[in-house]
Design a protein that fits this description.
Layout: H1 2-8, H2 13-25, H3 29-42, H4 49-59, H5 63-76, H6 81-93, H7 97-110, H8 115-123, H9 133-155, H10 158-166, H11 184-203, E1 220-225, H12 232-244, E2 251-256, H13 263-270, E3 274-277, H14 282-292, E4 296-299, H15 306-312, E5 319-323, E6 337-341, E7 356-360, E8 390-394, H16 403-416, E9 419-425, H17 430-446, H18 451-454, E10 455-459, H19 463-472, E11 475-477, H20 486-493, E12 498-501, H21 510-517, E13 524-525, H22 528-542, H23 545-559, H24 566-585
Parallel strand pairs: 1-2, 1-4, 2-3, 4-5, 5-6, 6-7, 8-9, 8-11, 9-10, 11-12, 12-13
């Protein structure tokens, strides 16, 4: 309709507005932005014109540009509460916490009954990058205080609670997992609040309680995931389930809630009895799930995507299960089980979870190596090799850097000297990356390490180039506060040795579990001294070409033991069957 109108009248403002909004609703954000910009050029006085551009830029994760457009909007209408909220969200993403807090205070002053600014205000208690050990250690208490304030506001008026229910998941305590501790009680308090809010909102609209059908003889499994595409959640947790799930035992529905698609998305569509995708509203997702009536809903990554959090807070299936796409308890009362692996968890692991913890064999996943050929790195990405100087790699997201780890890293670098440290800076999280790198540089300078020789900052590269990088460095350094699984898995397949210090929670044990899975636990450190000693030994070994080649060949050969663990899928199936049988008993 809009296209036909614009064919006849290319500058028709009403049609441009309608097409831009439609693009935005369908997740076609680049097209939406292009149309909103064109609309603004034609009609600079268009109501909400600058705000629509800014909001779309936020959704495109182009936060610095979004700030400019929000500020233009506010220069025209200073009391525009939604623009202050959007500005706060953009500044929060850029790591500008004080500026974000000021913007939220302006939004709250304009309309204190709107829930989103209050959610953002609560989550601002969680720093993207902790600047000191004191700040890192104080974060859980700050979050507890912020949640108490949010709960008090929600409970002060039934309308507040219901309004909050519409925004459940829009802001999540994702960053809490990057601070020390297991956080079960904190996340359970958050989970209780958003579950009450979500139920209040959707019950008033007739969506809840949802009728739960009798459990089928061949249960219907719904996988609800934002990342049905090339992504760590898909590559590590989901794809193996989709490939190996016995269709004689289960019917499979995939709910793809994300925007991006690729060949993996199309592969998934071919391997499911039913595949649902599209930028649907929450009410539409609830309607579709109610019609499908799955016996099991599986949420691989609650905590990373607003929609999975919102839907996971509600009772939509007899059995609701989460996994470690975000490796910490969800805290949600309607999630019944958390699926992990017995090589990933400590002895007291159940005490870390609100859900019933199920530990599948090994690391609990069934992976297959990537069909991707390494591509050449950009010219001058790697420094020219200096004989005897070891290349170390630090390639984690900036919020994984905890202040307590920086001094340990300095000790590792001193023990590995002469060496150079390649630090990758995240494309999208540029401000957080800048801060994390600057804090690390300060620590290394204070340790009298020569940064000119030692420190090599490089931008993030695409996966095919990253595989080349893994083949051309000598040692992968895991971070103790938050371990990596996907990059460690990729490193091992490239034969790259890994040093990891195993901690007390799941998120600190991912690389260690992977090393145990492949039968190579010798580079798992028990304490800081052990971590330094292992790194120094592997660095010394890498200076001997024959020893280095032998170890890399052994690791690459062993890495296949991490893959094709179909028994984990069989165990996953049996876990669901047994749990459904218990539910049938009543």
């Amino acid at each position: 309709m809009f296209d036909e109108a614009l064919r006849l009248h290319p500058n028709l403002v009403e049609a441009l507005r309608g097409r831009a909004v439609l693009h935005a609703l369908q997740g076609q954000l680049e097209q939406a932005l292009e149309t909103f910009l064109r609309l603004y050029q034609l009609a600079p006085g268009e109501p909400n014109g600058q705000h629509n551009i800014a909001t779309t830029l936020n959704r495109l994760e182009r936060y610095a540009e979004a700030v400019v457009w929000f500020e233009r909007s506010l220069a025209v209408v200073p009391e525009f509460g939604r623009a202050w909220t959007g500005l706060a969200a953009a500044r929060e993403e850029l790591g500008e916490r004080s500026n974000a807090s000021e913007a939220i205070q302006r939004a709250l002053a304009i309309n204190p009954s709107v829930p989103l600014p209050r959610l953002i205000q609560a989550m601002l208690s969680l720093p993207r990058v902790a600047e000191s050990e004191e700040q890192s250690e104080a974060t859980p208490a700050a979050f507890c205080q912020a949640m108490a304030a949010l709960t008090e506001w929600a409970d002060a008026d039934p309308n507040h609670l219901s309004a909050l229910g519409e925004r459940v998941g829009d802001r999540q305590p994702f960053l809490l997992a990057y601070r020390p501790g297991q956080h079960r009680d904190l996340l359970s308090g958050y989970g209780d609040l958003i579950a009450r809010a979500g139920n209040a909102y959707w019950s008033a609209r007739g969506f809840l309680p949802m009728a739960i059908s009798p459990i089928r003889a061949r249960p219907r499994l719904g996988i609800l995931c934002y990342f049905i595409r090339r992504h760590s959640v898909w590559d590590i947790i989901v794809k193996g389930l989709v490939r190996h799930l016995l269709r004689t035992r289960f019917e499979l529905i995939i709910y793809h809630t994300g925007v991006e698609t690729d060949e993996e998305t199309r592969w998934a569509e071919r391997h499911a009895e039913r595949f649902v995708t599209g930028q649907l509203g929450l009410a539409e997702w609830l309607r579709l799930i109610r019609e499908d009536a799955p016996d099991v809903l599986f949420f691989p990554e609650i905590g990373m995507d607003p929609l999975s959090c919102h839907l996971g807070a509600l009772r939509l299936a007899p059995l609701q299960v989460a996994s470690w796409g975000h490796p910490i308890t969800t805290g949600l009362p309607e999630i019944d089980m958390f699926i992990s692996g017995d090589l990933l968890e400590p002895p007291d692991a159940q005490s870390h979870y609100r859900e019933r913890l199920v530990q599948l064999p090994g690391t609990g996943v069934c992976t297959e190596w990537l069909d991707i050929k390494p591509a050449p790195l950009p010219v001058s990405y790697l420094r020219q090799r200096t004989p005897g100087r070891v290349r170390l790699l630090l390639c984690q997201h900036p919020f994984k850097h905890d202040p307590a780890d920086r001094s340990l890293l300095a000790e590792v670098l001193r023990a590995c000297s002469p060496c150079e440290l390649y630090v990758l800076k995240h494309r999208r999280l540029s401000r957080a990356s800048d801060l994390a790198v600057e804090l690390l540089r300060q620590t290394l300078a204070e340790a009298d390490l020569d940064l000119e020789v030692l420190f090599v900052e490089r931008p993030w590269v695409d996966l095919d180039q990253f595989l080349s990088l893994l083949a051309n460095v000598d040692l992968y350094l895991d971070l103790p506060a938050f371990s990596g699984y996907t990059t460690a898995w990729q490193a091992l397949h490239c034969g790259l040795p890994i040093v990891t210090l195993e901690g007390p929670t799941l998120r600190q044990r991912l690389a260690a579990g992977l090393l145990r899975q492949i039968g190579r636990p010798e580079s798992i450190a028990r304490n800081s001294e052990d971590d330094v000693a292992i790194a120094a030994q592997l660095a010394a070994e890498s200076r001997d070409p024959a020893l280095q080649a032998a170890r890399r060949a052994e690791l690459a050969a062993a890495a296949v033991k991490a893959d094709h663990q179909v028994e984990t899928v069989r165990a996953f199936e049996q876990t669901l069957v047994d749990a459904l049988a218990e539910l049938k008993k009543g």
